[in-house]
Amino acid sequence: MTLHWQPSAPEHVPPELMVDFDFFKIPEGLKDPAQIWHGLVRDGAPPIFYTPHNGGHWVFLKYDDIVEGYRDFEKFSTYQTPIPPIEPFPVVMPQGVDPPEHTVFRMLLAPMFTPLAVRRMTEHLQQRAEKLIAGFADKGECDFIADYASIFPTSTFLELFGLPQERLPEFLALSEVFFRSTDPDARAQNLNDIYAVLEDLFREKERNPGNDIASTIVTARDADGNQHKWIDILNCGFLLFVAGLDTVTNTMTYVWRYLATTPEARAYFRSKLDDPQAFLMAIEELMRINAVSNIYRRVTHDFEYKGIRFKRNDRIILPNTVANRDPSIFSNPQSIDLDRKVNNHVTFGVGPHRCIGSHLAKREIMISMQEWLKHIPDFELAPDQAEASVFGGSVMGFTSLKLRW
Amino acid sequence: MKVVANLNVCQGHARCEDICPEVFSTDAIEGKVVIENPEFPPELEEKVRLAVRNCPEGALRIAKGAKA
Predict the structure, then answer these.
(1) Rounded CA gap, A97 and A93, in Å?
(2) In this complex, do B17 and A115 lie within 8 Å of one another by their Cβ atoms?
């Protein structure tokens, strides 16, 4: 990797802060895409640097700066942040707007994602996880992503939105293009398709409201007693589609890859099957070490931060995986300690935009692990797994994870 | 001893509830921390301290000897 790379620095970026870094590009042979970020730290990249790739953007590498990027929404906005810049891109609601506008939809969604609400979903999550796993447990092998990790969160989405599970293939196809395609035409068409589905869904729920999130959003009233703006309703549906599928899929894949290669970890979790509290605490450590999201922010106005000049509309990436292994915050940050006592990871962000689905995501992962370990207590990577490819970007992950037992 | 929360800072991570449900719970509207009885017995001190240290927002603090 070339540090202090010279060409095309914007005029406000000093050359010593330029680094040649493309977060979509994973070097051949690298088995864990997160390592491109940790490589930066190992190679001594400046803690705040600028790369001209992907439209040009800053990267924060210190826990404290990443936390500041999350908290200070007056400097670091979530509005119109895609990297590279994609126009037009929907305003995901409410993640893509800042307080106070953010607060309205946040408060609307919050009751459906509290720990209390999520605990009430436990039985349904268990039933679906159990059914999926029982479907291939006897086969002795599976592709974890195709057979489980992409299906489970999508089927949770269908349940939350009051949609029949029969529509699973349709939603899997939509999310496959949305999350994996790099073809601009396919992406543009895909956005239209997703919004057409959301339009139909919300119109139907408006006519026949049920006990689901889509109905709650579409029947909610603003401070003046009116329905929220239709585009905000669609964008809110879009947020829940975007935020809760690929992140969970790839986090699970990281976790299962770790379990497949770490017999002691499987034994540890098996020993905690009757102790959900300890199980959940150990999952926090898996959340710390397997942070798949690199989060975008946009600079709202010209200012100086830590002696560095930022200009309005500069983009910034906050790599959670780097914050979560900052040695000034975590002891033995690179090692996985399932009994770690203090664990202030930022996998779900901090501040007003803290991932609203964090409790659901953790519950989905916990239940999946519990049901899996009951049916398949021991498993390993299939021999041909080495050829599986990895990808970088805003959410990092793998395209397949072949397991056998 | 007593533990207090700053609800302006709490973002509903619920790490405190996960670590020490004897003292912390979360509400049904925003999912923010609820401390029904801020005065906690000495045998829970270690867990409460861990909950405080694990708050990603720094929203919890222990007030020594203070009365509710």
Answers:
(1) 7
(2) yes
